Amino acid sequence: MFKKAFILLLVLVSWNQSSALHLAGGEIFYECVGNNRYAITLKIYRDCNGNGANFDDNARFTIYQASNNSILQTFTIPRPDSVLILPFNQDIRCLLDTPDICISTVSYIDTIDLSVPLGGAYVVHSRCCRPANVINVQNISSTGNTYAAFIPDSTIAPCNSSPYYNGVPPTAICADVDFEFDYSATDLDGDSLVYRLCTPFHGGSQNNPAPWIADAPPFTQVSWELGFDEDNQITAWPAVTIDSVTGLLSGRPTQQGVFAFGVCVQEWRDGVFLSENKRDFQFTTTMCEIDAAAAIDSAIEECVGFDIQFFNLSTLGDSFRWDFGDTTALDDTSYYDNPIYTFPDTGTYMVQLIAFGEVCSDTSWFPYRVQHKIEPYFDPPDPDCLDGHRYEFIPEGYYRETTQIRWEFEGDTADISGEEVPIATKVYDTLGWHKITLHYKDPKLGCYKYYTDSIQVYPNPILHLNEPPDGSCAPYFGNFSTSVEHAFKPTYLWMLDSTVISDSSSAYVESYDIGPHDLRIILMTDSMCVDTLDSFFVAHVNVLDTPSAGFSVDPYEQDMFFPDFTLYDESSNRLAWKFFVDGEYVSPNSIVEVTMSDTGWHTITQIARHPNGCADTAYDQVKVTAQYLTFIPNSFSPNSNGRNDTWKPSVFEFGSYELKVFNRWGEVVFTSYDPEIGWNGQKHNDGPPCPVGVYTYDLLITDKLGEPYNYQGRLNLIH
After folding, report:
1. Domain at 375-458: CATH code
2. Considering only CA atoms, which of 478, 397, 400, 412 is closest in space to residue 446?
3. Is the entire prediction scored with pTM above 0.70?
């Protein structure tokens, strides 16, 4: 158990020592010495102050055939005895002390025999890992390095030698100070060289930091952190760039830290790419102890006229002095940080800025060309509707007779520089925002500027009438409503033919005029798409012709013994008509004889119909009067012989009925409210028999018209 733990500890310690967390960078280049022999040079850079492993005792190489990635050979180069310490090579005039950063380098050099196959070969070395404090690469703790050199075959460039850099990379760069480094290279074959910034390669792993077999092409690039990329590998302003012809690296770092940084020099021969030397080196930006450092913002706009504002980018200095190089004036100096100076005329002026420190002063020069003011500008037209718009664009700002003016409408350009007044018009066929760019180019002044603004095209309002065309018999009554799209703050005007009927989003239509009628709706908007939409809905309302029902009756009143009436049709504008009595159909004739079956009021109805289906109804009433009759017997004999056993009055055509019978003492012995129920001679018809004698009665009747009748008299009860 203890033995296993000790072995594991040894392995972990060994891996930690072999993982070269001290690596600051490297590069591979080669020289053809003839007879298929190549002198290979691997430069490795190491952080002297780091606590990682030393330079590898033997650097391991793999040679791949480029056409199929097959391994041609592997070899090692032993570490040389000599180790060089890179000097601090940033030329800063008032630097008081150099940064405490140490970078050492060794060159692994050996000559190998290699018959380059068709398609070329790659010489590759992989090593892990990079320092953990690198801030511009993702997963830096597990990101390593791959250095590779491509050797073209003899059909492309026989016995080719790759370019190599003339100087050593900078050990440190002072933050907030302009710098320039010579990254130029030499090619022994005299090939054309092109410089560019490039992304370093990853290689190796934490588990295998120094692989026997190096990573094969195509090589994996490191992954940049957010905010960084191949053209922005260091936080800087102005950005760090390289001159593609001279190899001059320049910029102004603004953030302290350690950055992985790649520069490539390519060799070309007769337009054919041969190979590339990629120097992968960590740049360390740090604050330097500088007494004074003068810097003028070189990103000053040209062709802005004679009043020029200069900006002081100096980070160090107790005071500053500007000299604007105006030989026509004695007061062309200023002690302000960011002064404005008015130049007398066009021309190039050598502007000087001196930063004064305690023990040192630094001077910066900047040639500035003063030109006439060129400033494009235009007022974008107000937003308009898609249908019917036509935008007009007028160039404003500052331009001269020699200025070429060009309008650009999102890729659709119109060159109108030859016109006396360069006004452009444009009609769009799509909605939304549209970008317009006005270009001013003056070949005589050597100036080019542009101004961009946008205009918006709104959709036209759309109106929908929600109800379909409608028709009905006169008089017509109907409700109509609308729904709208893209209408902002709408107002409405409704018209039926030429008559205004509503000023809201809906309308109530009432018409007695026969025939079709047009609906007209005027929709008006007063914001965004300001438009008037005039919509006609032809014959949307159709008022149909209606008949006129009418009849007369003769007579209007009859008694119950002769309940006969005659109906006379007097309707007009109709195809047919029908008569109804109390809702019952009786006849379609023009003269109708009707006999009523009951007394009282009776309703006569006539319905007349037009050929178009419209109908009209007329009503009237006739009366059949009741003839009232009554008979009251004066005696009866309730002896159960079946003859005259019950006494009751006989009543015809009555409305109400109330009968009372009294004995001679005035006591009620019988009461009835139904003429069908008579007196049987017993007290209240279910008591003891009443004695023979004379009785009195009181009968109160109303006829069907409500007229009351009262009868009183005597009756005899006999046996």
Report:
1. 2.60.40.10
2. 400
3. no
